[in-house]
Write a structure and sequence with these properties.
alpha/beta; 329 residues; single chain; 10 helices
Length: 329
C-alpha cells in the first residue's frame, strides 16, 4: 500500500487509516466488538499502519478497545489520539477544554488507556475558543520534549486558528505535523481553505468522514433510520443537514448514480469515495471506520485506484444535476 509523509515531517503512514470512532459503542450504531477487533489485526496484516482514536469516543471506549485489539502489536502502528474535552464522573462530555494543565493530564490518561509509553501523533480535538490557541500547543510541545509524544497537531482548526496556534512556537519546538478535519464528496468546505493552507505550510492532512458517515457506503435506503443514541439520528453532521429527511432522500439519489459510475470500473461507491479523497494532493491519509474484515477488504481495494479528471468531472456533474450541494466555501 502507498505511504505518504505528513507535510515536511519524518512521520509517514499508509494512505488508508483505520478510524475507530465506530468502536465507541455508545455513539455510532451497533457493532460486534469481536468482529471489530479481528478487523484491527487484519488491517495490520494487510498493510494499514495508522490507527486513529480519541478520548471522547465513548468516552474512553475506543481507546480501550483499540488497545485490547492491538495487544503486543502496538509498535507496528502509527497511533493517533485526540484530547481537549471535560467529562463528568459518569463520562458525559461537558465541553471543550484546552488549557495547558488539562492537556498534560489528559495525555497521561490516553497513555494509560492505550497501554503505551508514547503516542505517535497527539491532536487537539476541537478549538477551544475560551483558551488561547497557543496554550494547548505549548502543552503538546512540552509533551514531545518529554518523550511522551512524537508529533503533535490539531483537529477541526481553520487556517487562522492554525496560524495563531503556531505563533508561540520556537523553531526548536517544531510546528504542526497534522490537521484532521472532515472531507468527502458531500462536504468540501475545506477545499479552498484548510487544504491549500496545509499544502503550502507543509502540514499533513487527515481526512475523516471519508465515507460521509455511512452515506457513501451504499448501505442506506429511504427506509433507513438510526437509533436514538446514534448521533446521526439528530439529522445534522458537523453543521450540515445531511441526515435530515429531505436532504437524505436527495443524497441517496446521488449515491445511486455514484454506484453506477463505480460499477463501470467494477468498483463500489465506497471505493470511489476513498479514491476521490486520496486524489487531492494535500491529503496524507483517508480515515475510514471498518467494523469487520469484509469492510476492510473492500476499503483496501480502493487504494490503488487513481481517478482521472474526467471521473471527477462526472462526479461533480452528478451532484449538479441532482441539485445536491457540496458546501464548497
Amino acid at each position: 500500500m502507498e505511504h505518504r509523509f505528513f507535510g515536511d515531517s519524518d512521520l509517514s503512514c499508509s494512505v488508508l487509516g483505520f478510524g475507530t470512532w465506530e468502536l465507541s459503542t455508545t455513539q455510532y450504531g451497533e457493532i460486534d466488538v469481536g468482529d471489530a477487533a479481528r478487523a484491527v489485526n487484519a488491517a495490520l496484516d494487510r498493510g494499514i499502519t495508522l490507527f486513529d482514536t480519541a478520548e471522547v469516543y465513548g468516552p474512553y471506549h475506543s481507546e480501550e478497545l483499540l488497545s485490547a485489539a492491538l495487544g503486543l502489536r502496538r509498535q507496528e502502528i502509527v497511533l493517533v489520539t485526540k484530547v481537549g474535552f471535560d467529562f463528568d464522573e459518569q463520562g458525559h462530555t461537558l465541553g471543550r477544554n484546552s488549557r495547558y494543565d488539562h492537556i498534560i493530564a489528559h495525555a497521561e490518561g490516553c497513555l494509560k488507556r492505550l497501554n503505551t509509553d508514547w503516542i505517535d501523533l497527539l491532536l487537539i480535538h476541537w478549538p477551544d475558543h475560551n483558551t488561547s490557541y497557543m496554550d494547548p500547543i505549548r502543552a503538546l510541545a512540552d509533551l514531545k520534549q518529554a518523550g511522551k509524544i512524537r508529533h503533535f497537531g490539531v483537529s477541526n482548526f481553520g487556517p487562522a486558528m492554525m496560524q495563531a496556534a503556531e505563533s508561540g512556537l520556537s523553531e526548536r519546538k517544531g510546528h504542526l505535523t497534522a490537521n484532521q478535519i472532515g472531507y468527502n464528496m458531500f462536504d468540501r468546505r475545506t477545499e479552498h481553505t484548510v487544504l491549500p493552507y496545509c499544502l503550502e505550510h507543509k502540514i499533513g492532512f487527515m481526512a475523516y468522514g471519508t465515507l460521509c458517515y455511512g452515506l457513501l457506503t451504499g448501505a442506506f435506503t429511504p427506509e433507513t433510520t438510526f437509533v436514538d443514541w446514534d448521533w446521526r439520528s439528530k439529522g445534522s453532521a458537523f453543521g450540515l443537514p445531511l441526515f435530515q429527511r429531505e436532504h437524505f432522500l436527495k443524497e441517496l439519489r446521488v449515491v445511486k448514480r455514484l454506484q453506477e459510475l463505480a460499477a463501470g470500473y467494477n468498483k463500489t461507491v465506497a471505493q470511489l469515495a476513498i479514491a476521490w479523497v486520496l486524489s487531492h494532493p494535500a491529503v496524507t491519509v483517508a480515515l475510514v471506520g471498518m467494523r469487520n474484515v469484509r469492510e476492510l477488504e473492500e476499503n483496501i481495494a480502493a487504494t490503488d485506484w487513481k481517478l482521472t479528471d474526467a471521473d471527477k468531472a462526472e462526479i461533480d456533474r452528478i451532484f449538479q444535476e441532482e441539485d445536491v450541494p457540496t458546501y464548497v466555501t
